[in-house]
Design brief:
alpha/beta, OB fold (Dihydrolipoamide Acetyltransferase, E2P), 2 domains, 5-stranded parallel beta sheet, 8 helices, 33% strand, LytTR_DNA-bd_dom, DNA binding, phosphoprotein, LytR-like
Length: 255
């Protein structure tokens, strides 16, 4: 099976690295390059390559935008290329979508290419898998960076990075910062759905914490744990929040 391949990346060095590896494979008949999403869309529509290596993070038109312009159902087989971003990787793995993380080894590239060729030889690529993976990435883009809070007649904005923890208070929430507290008229569930799950974890039905502000975690009793934040605040973790606990153990606050 001879394949035509399109390599899309705004970084020439990264693009050429993939091209060189592809040139070593006897199954690759033709290789084209694009340095931006707009030209990639035109190339896909005109030449219909069998396989695409598509960078996600590109200026102007990202890899996600390019897929949206073509339509996932009309996309050729696609290997997404990304800088290390755990959320993107989980989205791809959950939907069996092939990906490469920069920088990648020759062995990793060979494994990914073989997997892509095997899927093309079998039943092809399922567009719904690409759609589901990209939808997960789009949700990440919708997560809050700042939260508007009202004080008297004034509205100010709180950066989510400054949040230490959030407490449920009936139909409101209390946002705890290192230097104060703000009350927000929103339910815990509604706010939680708009917070990045890479950065915030619900450790109790009435408490959400910023995982980057965690100083330590200690076992308590009856399966409970105590989470100490970098402000010294100690919060009890429900014994049912095992997933949150595992995330906290494997995540270290960024300095």
């Amino acid at each position: 099976m001879k394949l035509s391949v399109l390599v899309v990346d705004d970084e020439p060095i990264a693009r050429r690295a993939i091209v060189r590896l592809l040139q070593e494979d006897p199954d690759i008949a033709a290789i084209k390059e694009c340095g931006d999403g707009v030209s990639a869309v035109a190339e896909i529509r005109t030449r219909r390559p069998d396989l695409i290596f598509l960078d996600i993070q590109m200026p102007a038109m990202t890899g996600i935008d390019a897929v949206a312009a073509i339509g996932a159902e009309a996309m050729p087989a696609t290997v997404f290329v990304t800088a290390y971003e755990q959320y993107a990787i989980k989205a791809f793995e959950a939907n069996a979508v092939d990906y490469l993380v920069k920088p990648f080894s020759r062995e990793r590239f060979a494994t990914t290419l073989q997997r892509a060729k095997a899927r093309l030889s079998a039943s092809g690529y399922a567009s719904d898998r690409i759609l589901q993976a990209l939808e997960a990435l789009r949700r990440r883009e919708d997560y809050l960076d700042r939260i508007p809070v009202r004080s008297d007649e004034q509205v100010s904005f709180v950066d989510v990075d400054d949040i230490v923890w959030i407490k449920a208070s009936r139909n409101n929430v209390l946002i705890h910062l290192a230097n104060g507290t703000h009350e927000l008229r929103e339910t815990m569930a509604a706010l939680a759905s708009r917070l990045d799950p890479r950065r915030f974890a619900r450790i109790h039905r009435s408490a959400i914490i910023n995982t980057r502000r965690v100083k330590s975690i200690h076992p308590w009793f009856n399966g409970y744990h105590v989470v100490t934040m970098d402000t010294g605040q100690q919060l009890r973790m429900s014994r049912y929040q095992h997933e949150a606990f595992l995330r906290l153990v494997s995540t270290r606050p960024e300095k």
